[in-house]
Design brief:
The protein is of the alpha+beta class. It is built from 13 helices and 15 strands. A hairpin with a 5-residue loop joins strand 10 and strand 11.
Length: 379
């Protein structure tokens, strides 16, 4: 615990303290039309490393800042030892960073993370990041008047200014696009898809139940994520516990209409795309809780959507250059048109990942958000 001119930093431990930690953004962003809450129960489970499979290779601590007894900020310190082993960078992470317009509070919170990192022999701190690449990550630096998605962070514009004053600088940026669903699929595209399918033997796997998908391709899906995402910023190999957890977490709620799976002639997984009707407005209305009526808002959003969020897309490396992603994207477009969807929101894409951004080259789109991981080397 530390104090400075009415400012107090408290380590948050125990169920009651963690509920306060998770609840803080609801106060900070009250009335903000762009912030989208996490489901409270999911956030608590993620932060509890006795329940989160990332606890096999991560450790963490949590703090909140109080001024005159009132909460003014929070932060998590994370050490992902699998990241350090894979990338050879002795870096700790900060995440779950939210703060009032109070530079002194931000300075105290980030300073506490830096001290924690030094105690563990780390040479720098970067963030905002979660425990793994499948957690929310990246500080919003453009697009403050755009609604967040369930999978992305939102923050006030002054966050980045505070971090830069504290000696942090850009390490990497992601960009996001809002892509218009076309009115029709051109005949030329359909002909090209047919040629690609004949040349490669790739077809779409039509699945009807989540249980069927999980049993048949659940493990292959996450093995493919490991393979396709291996070179991306901050990624680490998935453990067996993570694979089993993510099969339940992701495949337990995917929508057959918007989740596309491609297989080869032998029935082996080639690629997939997981999209979902946007839950942003439903989460705002439910205030991050399923009970008593939050589940109803989510159910209604899942039934009818004008916007879909694109969460994960992956294709086996040896098939990328053969154009098979076009088959997946065309079928997703067909479904979106049939369901009356007007726009798709892409997940964050590394600004240097031109290959992924090329997916949208023939669509009407706008790059509407940018988010950043900041890095500071510790003296």
């Amino acid at each position: 615990m530390g104090e400075c001119m009415g400012l107090e930093i408290r380590m948050m431990e125990g169920k009651r303290a963690m509920k306060e930690f998770v609840a803080y953004p609801f106060k900070l962003y009250r009335g903000n039309p762009y912030w989208v809450p996490q489901l409270v129960a999911d956030d608590l489970a993620t932060l509890d490393l006795s329940r989160n499979p990332a606890g096999e290779f991560c450790e963490s601590s949590y703090w909140m800042a109080y001024r005159d007894g009132k909460p003014v900020g929070r932060v998590a310190a994370i050490l992902n030892r699998a990241y350090v082993r894979k990338w050879g960078n002795k870096l700790a992470r900060f995440g779950w960073f939210d703060v009032a317009d109070d530079f002194e509070a931000a300075q105290a919170l980030i300073g506490t993370v830096e001290a924690w990192a030094r105690e563990r022999g780390m040479e720098g701190v970067h963030g905002p990041l979660g425990f793994t690449d499948l957690d929310r990550e990246g500080l919003l630096v453009e697009g403050f008047e755009e609604c967040a998605t369930m999978a992305t962070l939102y923050n006030h514009p002054y966050y980045g200014q505070f971090l830069e004053r504290l000696g942090y600088a850009k390490d990497v940026d992601w960009v996001e696009f809002k892509v218009k669903v076309p009115d029709a699929i051109p005949e030329k595209v359909l002909r090209v898809n047919e040629l690609i399918a004949k040349r490669t033997g790739v077809t779409l796997y039509k699945w009807k139940s989540r249980k069927q998908l999980a049993k048949t391709y659940g493990r292959q899906l996450f093995e493919l994520i490991d393979e396709a995402y291996a070179g991306l910023y901050g990624t680490t190999p998935l453990t067996e516990r993570q694979v089993q957890s993510y099969i339940k977490q992701y495949l337990g709620f995917v929508d057959p209409r918007f989740t596309k799976v491609m297989i080869d002639a032998d029935g082996k997984l080639v690629g997939f795309g997981i999209s979902m009707p946007s839950l942003s407005a439903a989460l705002q209305r439910s205030r991050g809780r399923l009970l008593p009526f939050g589940w109803l808002h989510l159910l209604l959003a899942l039934r009818k959507a004008e916007v879909v969020d694109m969460y994960l897309v992956a294709v086996k490396p040896e098939f990328v250059s053969r154009g098979v992603i076009a088959i997946l994207m065309t079928d997703l477009n067909r479904t979106a048109m049939e369901e009356g969807v007007k726009y798709a929101e892409t997940n964050p894409e590394l600004e240097t990942n031109i290959q992924v951004q090329q997916l949208w080259k023939d669509y009407e789109k706008r790059q509407h958000k940018r988010r950043r991981v900041y890095l500071k080397k510790l003296a």
